[in-house]
Amino acid sequence: xxxxxxxxxxxxxxxxxxxxxxxxxxxxxxxxxxxxxxxxxxxxxxxxxxxxxxxxxxxxxxxxxxxxxxxxxxxxxxxxxxxxxxxxxxxxxxxxxxxxxxxxxxxxxxxxxxxxxxxxxxxxxxxxxxxxxxxxxxxxxxxxxxxxxxxxxxxxxxxxxxxxxxxxxxxxxxxxxxxxxxxxxxxxxxxxxxxxxxxxxxxxxxxxxxxxxxxxxxxxxxxxxxxxxxxxxxxxxxxxxxxxxxxxxxxxxxxxxxxxxxxxxxxxxxxxxxxxxxxxxxxxxxxxxxxxxxxxxxxxxxxxxxxxxxxxxxxxxxxxxxxxxxxxxxxxxxxxxxxxxxxxxxxxxxxxxxxxxxxxxxxxxxxxxxxxxxxxxxxxxxxxxxxxxxxxxxxxxxxxxxxxxx
Length: 406
Hints:
By secondary structure, this protein is mostly helical. The protein is 79% helix and 0% strand. It has one domain (2-400): MFS general substrate transporter like domains (Growth Hormone, Chain: A, Up-down Bundle).
Protein backbone atom coordinates (compact mmCIF):
# COMPACT_ATOMS: atom_id res chain seq x y z
CA UNK A 1 0.00 0.00 0.00
CA UNK A 2 2.78 2.56 0.68
CA UNK A 3 4.17 1.86 -2.81
CA UNK A 4 0.72 2.44 -4.29
CA UNK A 5 0.43 5.75 -2.46
CA UNK A 6 3.69 7.04 -3.94
CA UNK A 7 3.35 5.72 -7.53
CA UNK A 8 1.05 8.50 -8.82
CA UNK A 9 3.29 11.31 -7.59
CA UNK A 10 7.00 10.37 -7.55
CA UNK A 11 7.46 11.42 -11.20
CA UNK A 12 5.43 14.63 -10.82
CA UNK A 13 6.49 15.77 -7.32
CA UNK A 14 10.01 16.86 -8.40
CA UNK A 15 8.50 18.77 -11.34
CA UNK A 16 6.00 20.44 -9.02
CA UNK A 17 8.89 21.54 -6.79
CA UNK A 18 10.88 23.12 -9.60
CA UNK A 19 13.03 20.35 -11.13
CA UNK A 20 13.16 19.83 -14.90
CA UNK A 21 12.27 16.50 -16.54
CA UNK A 22 15.98 15.73 -17.07
CA UNK A 23 16.82 16.61 -13.44
CA UNK A 24 13.99 14.39 -12.22
CA UNK A 25 15.35 11.52 -14.31
CA UNK A 26 18.87 12.13 -13.04
CA UNK A 27 17.94 12.03 -9.34
CA UNK A 28 15.78 8.94 -9.89
CA UNK A 29 18.81 7.24 -11.43
CA UNK A 30 20.60 7.59 -8.08
CA UNK A 31 18.40 4.79 -6.72
CA UNK A 32 19.40 2.42 -9.51
CA UNK A 33 23.10 3.11 -9.17
CA UNK A 34 22.93 2.64 -5.38
CA UNK A 35 21.19 -0.70 -5.75
CA UNK A 36 23.76 -1.70 -8.38
CA UNK A 37 26.53 -1.30 -5.80
CA UNK A 38 24.69 -2.82 -2.83
CA UNK A 39 22.42 -5.49 -4.33
CA UNK A 40 24.77 -8.47 -4.18
CA UNK A 41 26.29 -7.63 -0.77
CA UNK A 42 22.84 -7.21 0.78
CA UNK A 43 21.59 -10.42 -0.88
CA UNK A 44 24.59 -12.24 0.52
CA UNK A 45 23.91 -10.67 3.92
CA UNK A 46 20.33 -11.99 3.85
CA UNK A 47 21.55 -15.51 3.04
CA UNK A 48 24.28 -15.36 5.69
CA UNK A 49 22.56 -13.47 8.51
CA UNK A 50 18.88 -14.21 7.94
CA UNK A 51 16.02 -12.86 5.84
CA UNK A 52 13.98 -11.40 8.73
CA UNK A 53 16.66 -9.11 10.24
CA UNK A 54 17.59 -7.76 6.81
CA UNK A 55 13.94 -6.95 6.06
CA UNK A 56 13.66 -5.11 9.38
CA UNK A 57 16.73 -3.00 8.57
CA UNK A 58 15.24 -2.29 5.13
CA UNK A 59 12.03 -1.06 6.71
CA UNK A 60 13.90 1.37 8.95
CA UNK A 61 15.86 2.81 6.00
CA UNK A 62 12.63 3.22 4.02
CA UNK A 63 11.13 5.32 6.82
CA UNK A 64 14.09 7.69 6.70
CA UNK A 65 13.92 7.89 2.89
CA UNK A 66 10.24 8.83 2.84
CA UNK A 67 10.86 11.45 5.54
CA UNK A 68 13.53 13.11 3.38
CA UNK A 69 11.29 13.01 0.30
CA UNK A 70 8.49 14.74 2.20
CA UNK A 71 10.66 17.85 2.72
CA UNK A 72 12.80 17.66 -0.45
CA UNK A 73 12.78 20.78 -2.62
CA UNK A 74 16.09 20.66 -4.45
CA UNK A 75 18.20 18.31 -6.58
CA UNK A 76 20.53 17.34 -3.66
CA UNK A 77 17.65 16.50 -1.30
CA UNK A 78 15.78 14.48 -3.91
CA UNK A 79 19.04 12.69 -4.73
CA UNK A 80 19.49 11.90 -1.01
CA UNK A 81 15.95 10.52 -0.82
CA UNK A 82 16.53 8.28 -3.84
CA UNK A 83 19.92 7.22 -2.46
CA UNK A 84 18.21 5.99 0.71
CA UNK A 85 15.51 4.35 -1.41
CA UNK A 86 18.32 2.52 -3.22
CA UNK A 87 19.65 1.17 0.08
CA UNK A 88 16.12 0.11 1.04
CA UNK A 89 15.47 -1.58 -2.32
CA UNK A 90 18.78 -3.45 -2.15
CA UNK A 91 18.01 -4.77 1.33
CA UNK A 92 14.37 -5.52 0.53
CA UNK A 93 14.99 -7.26 -2.80
CA UNK A 94 14.67 -11.02 -2.57
CA UNK A 95 14.59 -12.02 1.13
CA UNK A 96 10.81 -12.42 1.40
CA UNK A 97 10.51 -14.39 -1.86
CA UNK A 98 13.44 -16.61 -0.89
CA UNK A 99 11.95 -17.24 2.54
CA UNK A 100 8.61 -18.19 0.97
CA UNK A 101 10.13 -20.55 -1.61
CA UNK A 102 12.40 -22.28 0.91
CA UNK A 103 9.52 -22.73 3.38
CA UNK A 104 7.29 -24.12 0.60
CA UNK A 105 9.93 -26.59 -0.62
CA UNK A 106 10.63 -27.65 2.96
CA UNK A 107 7.01 -28.71 3.30
CA UNK A 108 6.77 -30.30 -0.15
CA UNK A 109 9.81 -30.96 -2.32
CA UNK A 110 7.80 -30.62 -5.56
CA UNK A 111 5.73 -27.64 -4.41
CA UNK A 112 4.12 -25.58 -7.18
CA UNK A 113 6.11 -22.41 -6.53
CA UNK A 114 4.97 -20.83 -9.82
CA UNK A 115 1.36 -20.71 -8.57
CA UNK A 116 2.49 -19.60 -5.12
CA UNK A 117 4.53 -16.74 -6.55
CA UNK A 118 1.67 -15.69 -8.81
CA UNK A 119 -0.62 -15.56 -5.76
CA UNK A 120 1.97 -13.31 -4.12
CA UNK A 121 1.92 -10.97 -7.12
CA UNK A 122 -1.88 -10.91 -6.98
CA UNK A 123 -1.80 -9.85 -3.30
CA UNK A 124 0.92 -7.27 -3.98
CA UNK A 125 -0.93 -5.85 -6.99
CA UNK A 126 -4.23 -5.51 -5.16
CA UNK A 127 -2.53 -3.76 -2.22
CA UNK A 128 -0.81 -1.31 -4.57
CA UNK A 129 -4.14 -0.76 -6.34
CA UNK A 130 -5.80 0.23 -3.06
CA UNK A 131 -2.88 2.51 -2.20
CA UNK A 132 -2.94 4.21 -5.59
CA UNK A 133 -6.69 4.79 -5.36
CA UNK A 134 -6.26 6.28 -1.91
CA UNK A 135 -3.42 8.47 -3.20
CA UNK A 136 -5.57 9.89 -6.00
CA UNK A 137 -8.33 10.65 -3.52
CA UNK A 138 -5.96 12.43 -1.16
CA UNK A 139 -4.52 14.54 -4.01
CA UNK A 140 -8.03 15.38 -5.21
CA UNK A 141 -8.98 16.62 -1.71
CA UNK A 142 -6.15 19.13 -1.95
CA UNK A 143 -3.68 20.52 0.61
CA UNK A 144 -3.95 19.70 4.31
CA UNK A 145 -2.58 22.50 6.47
CA UNK A 146 1.04 23.17 5.45
CA UNK A 147 1.16 20.00 3.31
CA UNK A 148 0.63 20.37 -0.43
CA UNK A 149 -1.75 18.04 -2.26
CA UNK A 150 1.18 15.99 -3.64
CA UNK A 151 2.80 15.70 -0.20
CA UNK A 152 -0.17 14.30 1.74
CA UNK A 153 0.05 10.77 0.23
CA UNK A 154 3.76 10.62 1.16
CA UNK A 155 2.92 11.31 4.82
CA UNK A 156 0.30 8.55 4.80
CA UNK A 157 2.80 6.22 3.07
CA UNK A 158 5.28 6.93 5.87
CA UNK A 159 2.76 5.81 8.48
CA UNK A 160 1.80 2.66 6.57
CA UNK A 161 5.47 1.80 6.01
CA UNK A 162 5.93 1.79 9.78
CA UNK A 163 3.01 -0.64 10.03
CA UNK A 164 4.56 -2.81 7.31
CA UNK A 165 7.86 -3.03 9.17
CA UNK A 166 6.00 -3.93 12.36
CA UNK A 167 4.17 -6.69 10.44
CA UNK A 168 7.48 -8.25 9.42
CA UNK A 169 8.61 -8.19 13.04
CA UNK A 170 5.43 -9.84 14.30
CA UNK A 171 4.35 -12.20 11.50
CA UNK A 172 7.53 -13.52 9.85
CA UNK A 173 9.20 -16.48 11.55
CA UNK A 174 12.56 -17.89 10.56
CA UNK A 175 14.21 -20.99 11.96
CA UNK A 176 17.71 -19.76 12.69
CA UNK A 177 19.82 -20.31 15.79
CA UNK A 178 20.29 -17.54 18.35
CA UNK A 179 23.21 -15.35 17.30
CA UNK A 180 25.70 -13.60 19.50
CA UNK A 181 28.43 -11.24 18.37
CA UNK A 182 30.73 -14.08 17.23
CA UNK A 183 27.95 -15.66 15.17
CA UNK A 184 27.13 -12.28 13.63
CA UNK A 185 30.76 -11.77 12.55
CA UNK A 186 30.79 -15.30 11.10
CA UNK A 187 27.61 -14.56 9.14
CA UNK A 188 29.05 -11.36 7.70
CA UNK A 189 32.19 -13.25 6.67
CA UNK A 190 29.88 -15.60 4.77
CA UNK A 191 28.63 -12.78 2.53
CA UNK A 192 31.49 -13.07 -0.03
CA UNK A 193 30.84 -16.82 -0.25
CA UNK A 194 27.17 -16.23 -1.04
CA UNK A 195 28.08 -13.59 -3.63
CA UNK A 196 30.64 -15.92 -5.20
CA UNK A 197 28.05 -18.68 -5.43
CA UNK A 198 25.61 -16.45 -7.32
CA UNK A 199 28.27 -15.13 -9.69
CA UNK A 200 29.60 -18.64 -10.24
CA UNK A 201 26.16 -19.88 -11.23
CA UNK A 202 25.74 -17.02 -13.72
CA UNK A 203 29.16 -17.80 -15.17
CA UNK A 204 28.40 -21.50 -15.62
CA UNK A 205 24.78 -21.33 -16.74
CA UNK A 206 23.82 -19.69 -20.03
CA UNK A 207 20.18 -19.90 -18.92
CA UNK A 208 20.86 -17.78 -15.83
CA UNK A 209 22.88 -15.34 -17.95
CA UNK A 210 19.98 -15.05 -20.40
CA UNK A 211 17.46 -14.45 -17.60
CA UNK A 212 19.47 -11.66 -15.99
CA UNK A 213 19.96 -10.11 -19.44
CA UNK A 214 16.17 -10.06 -19.79
CA UNK A 215 16.01 -8.19 -16.49
CA UNK A 216 18.51 -5.62 -17.79
CA UNK A 217 16.50 -4.79 -20.94
CA UNK A 218 13.14 -5.10 -19.19
CA UNK A 219 14.21 -2.60 -16.52
CA UNK A 220 15.34 -0.11 -19.18
CA UNK A 221 11.89 -0.29 -20.75
CA UNK A 222 10.08 -0.01 -17.40
CA UNK A 223 11.04 3.67 -17.28
CA UNK A 224 8.32 4.25 -19.89
CA UNK A 225 5.40 3.32 -17.66
CA UNK A 226 6.91 4.12 -14.26
CA UNK A 227 8.38 7.56 -15.02
CA UNK A 228 7.22 8.78 -18.43
CA UNK A 229 3.55 7.81 -18.37
CA UNK A 230 2.54 10.45 -15.74
CA UNK A 231 4.48 13.06 -17.72
CA UNK A 232 2.76 11.93 -20.94
CA UNK A 233 -0.63 12.18 -19.22
CA UNK A 234 0.13 15.65 -17.84
CA UNK A 235 1.18 16.60 -21.38
CA UNK A 236 -2.14 15.61 -22.97
CA UNK A 237 -4.10 17.15 -20.06
CA UNK A 238 -1.89 20.27 -19.79
CA UNK A 239 -2.28 20.03 -16.01
CA UNK A 240 0.29 18.45 -13.62
CA UNK A 241 -1.96 18.43 -10.54
CA UNK A 242 -4.86 17.05 -12.56
CA UNK A 243 -2.63 14.34 -14.00
CA UNK A 244 -1.39 13.42 -10.50
CA UNK A 245 -4.95 13.17 -9.19
CA UNK A 246 -6.01 11.08 -12.19
CA UNK A 247 -2.95 8.82 -11.83
CA UNK A 248 -4.30 7.62 -8.47
CA UNK A 249 -7.40 5.79 -9.74
CA UNK A 250 -5.66 4.91 -13.02
CA UNK A 251 -2.76 3.29 -11.13
CA UNK A 252 -5.25 1.52 -8.90
CA UNK A 253 -6.99 -0.02 -11.90
CA UNK A 254 -3.59 -0.80 -13.44
CA UNK A 255 -2.50 -2.84 -10.43
CA UNK A 256 -5.90 -4.55 -10.29
CA UNK A 257 -5.53 -5.71 -13.90
CA UNK A 258 -1.91 -6.62 -13.07
CA UNK A 259 -3.28 -8.93 -10.38
CA UNK A 260 -5.65 -10.44 -12.94
CA UNK A 261 -2.76 -11.06 -15.31
CA UNK A 262 -0.77 -12.77 -12.57
CA UNK A 263 -3.75 -14.91 -11.60
CA UNK A 264 -4.21 -16.17 -15.16
CA UNK A 265 -0.56 -16.94 -15.85
CA UNK A 266 -0.40 -20.49 -14.37
CA UNK A 267 -2.96 -21.61 -16.97
CA UNK A 268 -0.88 -20.17 -19.82
CA UNK A 269 2.30 -21.78 -18.48
CA UNK A 270 0.59 -25.18 -18.43
CA UNK A 271 -0.40 -24.73 -22.08
CA UNK A 272 2.82 -23.50 -23.72
CA UNK A 273 5.48 -23.69 -20.99
CA UNK A 274 7.23 -20.96 -19.01
CA UNK A 275 9.92 -20.00 -21.59
CA UNK A 276 7.46 -19.47 -24.44
CA UNK A 277 5.13 -17.64 -22.05
CA UNK A 278 7.94 -15.25 -21.16
CA UNK A 279 8.78 -14.73 -24.85
CA UNK A 280 5.15 -13.96 -25.75
CA UNK A 281 4.64 -11.56 -22.87
CA UNK A 282 7.79 -9.53 -23.66
CA UNK A 283 6.65 -8.96 -27.27
CA UNK A 284 3.12 -8.14 -26.15
CA UNK A 285 4.29 -5.66 -23.53
CA UNK A 286 6.43 -3.86 -26.09
CA UNK A 287 3.34 -3.38 -28.26
CA UNK A 288 1.22 -2.10 -25.36
CA UNK A 289 3.90 0.45 -24.43
CA UNK A 290 3.97 1.70 -28.03
CA UNK A 291 0.20 2.15 -27.77
CA UNK A 292 0.67 4.15 -24.57
CA UNK A 293 3.09 6.47 -26.34
CA UNK A 294 1.23 6.96 -29.62
CA UNK A 295 -2.51 6.75 -28.94
CA UNK A 296 -4.16 10.17 -28.82
CA UNK A 297 -5.81 11.84 -25.85
CA UNK A 298 -6.07 10.82 -22.19
CA UNK A 299 -8.25 7.81 -23.03
CA UNK A 300 -5.66 6.43 -25.45
CA UNK A 301 -2.74 6.94 -23.06
CA UNK A 302 -4.63 5.35 -20.17
CA UNK A 303 -5.74 2.39 -22.31
CA UNK A 304 -2.16 1.65 -23.33
CA UNK A 305 -1.04 1.99 -19.71
CA UNK A 306 -3.66 -0.46 -18.43
CA UNK A 307 -2.79 -3.02 -21.12
CA UNK A 308 0.89 -2.63 -20.25
CA UNK A 309 0.25 -3.36 -16.59
CA UNK A 310 -1.90 -6.38 -17.38
CA UNK A 311 1.04 -7.94 -19.19
CA UNK A 312 3.50 -6.71 -16.56
CA UNK A 313 1.64 -8.51 -13.79
CA UNK A 314 1.63 -11.71 -15.79
CA UNK A 315 5.34 -11.43 -16.58
CA UNK A 316 6.76 -11.13 -13.07
CA UNK A 317 5.84 -14.57 -11.70
CA UNK A 318 7.00 -16.24 -14.93
CA UNK A 319 10.42 -14.60 -14.78
CA UNK A 320 10.84 -15.17 -11.03
CA UNK A 321 9.83 -18.82 -11.24
CA UNK A 322 12.28 -19.48 -14.09
CA UNK A 323 14.99 -17.89 -11.97
CA UNK A 324 14.07 -19.86 -8.84
CA UNK A 325 14.28 -23.10 -10.81
CA UNK A 326 17.95 -22.36 -11.47
CA UNK A 327 19.03 -22.31 -7.83
CA UNK A 328 18.38 -24.23 -4.67
CA UNK A 329 19.64 -23.98 -1.13
CA UNK A 330 21.05 -21.29 1.09
CA UNK A 331 22.27 -18.96 -1.69
CA UNK A 332 18.88 -18.44 -3.35
CA UNK A 333 18.60 -14.79 -2.26
CA UNK A 334 22.04 -14.02 -3.69
CA UNK A 335 20.91 -15.19 -7.13
CA UNK A 336 17.73 -13.10 -6.88
CA UNK A 337 19.89 -10.14 -5.85
CA UNK A 338 22.13 -10.69 -8.86
CA UNK A 339 19.05 -10.56 -11.09
CA UNK A 340 17.80 -7.42 -9.39
CA UNK A 341 21.27 -5.87 -9.47
CA UNK A 342 21.57 -6.00 -13.25
CA UNK A 343 18.12 -4.45 -13.54
CA UNK A 344 19.24 -1.36 -11.64
CA UNK A 345 21.74 -0.02 -14.19
CA UNK A 346 19.15 -0.79 -16.86
CA UNK A 347 16.59 1.40 -15.11
CA UNK A 348 19.16 4.06 -14.21
CA UNK A 349 20.45 4.36 -17.78
CA UNK A 350 16.88 4.32 -19.05
CA UNK A 351 15.87 7.07 -16.63
CA UNK A 352 18.74 9.27 -17.82
CA UNK A 353 18.54 8.57 -21.55
CA UNK A 354 14.78 8.37 -21.97
CA UNK A 355 14.02 11.49 -19.90
CA UNK A 356 16.69 13.37 -21.87
CA UNK A 357 15.11 12.14 -25.10
CA UNK A 358 11.68 13.16 -23.79
CA UNK A 359 12.94 16.68 -23.08
CA UNK A 360 14.92 17.12 -26.32
CA UNK A 361 12.60 15.33 -28.79
CA UNK A 362 9.26 14.25 -27.32
CA UNK A 363 7.80 12.08 -24.58
CA UNK A 364 6.21 9.82 -27.20
CA UNK A 365 9.55 9.21 -28.93
CA UNK A 366 11.13 8.27 -25.60
CA UNK A 367 8.29 5.84 -24.79
CA UNK A 368 8.54 4.09 -28.18
CA UNK A 369 12.33 3.77 -27.81
CA UNK A 370 11.91 2.15 -24.40
CA UNK A 371 9.31 -0.25 -25.82
CA UNK A 372 11.71 -1.46 -28.53
CA UNK A 373 14.48 -2.13 -26.01
CA UNK A 374 12.11 -4.02 -23.70
CA UNK A 375 10.72 -6.23 -26.48
CA UNK A 376 14.25 -7.04 -27.69
CA UNK A 377 14.65 -9.23 -24.59
CA UNK A 378 12.02 -11.75 -25.75
CA UNK A 379 14.32 -14.28 -27.53
CA UNK A 380 16.48 -14.60 -24.41
CA UNK A 381 13.71 -16.60 -22.72
CA UNK A 382 14.24 -19.35 -25.30
CA UNK A 383 17.95 -19.87 -24.58
CA UNK A 384 18.68 -23.51 -23.71
CA UNK A 385 21.65 -24.97 -21.83
CA UNK A 386 24.55 -26.38 -23.84
CA UNK A 387 24.41 -29.45 -21.64
CA UNK A 388 22.91 -30.44 -18.33
CA UNK A 389 23.97 -27.45 -16.26
CA UNK A 390 24.21 -27.81 -12.48
CA UNK A 391 21.42 -25.89 -10.76
CA UNK A 392 22.46 -26.16 -7.14
CA UNK A 393 23.89 -22.84 -6.01
CA UNK A 394 24.48 -24.12 -2.50
CA UNK A 395 28.14 -24.90 -3.07
CA UNK A 396 31.14 -24.72 -0.83
CA UNK A 397 33.15 -21.57 -0.35
CA UNK A 398 36.05 -23.08 -2.27
CA UNK A 399 34.06 -23.98 -5.37
CA UNK A 400 32.12 -20.72 -5.22
CA UNK A 401 35.29 -18.69 -5.59
CA UNK A 402 37.17 -20.97 -7.95
CA UNK A 403 37.02 -20.34 -11.74
CA UNK A 404 34.77 -22.91 -13.32
CA UNK A 405 32.82 -23.65 -10.13
CA UNK A 406 31.42 -27.15 -9.97
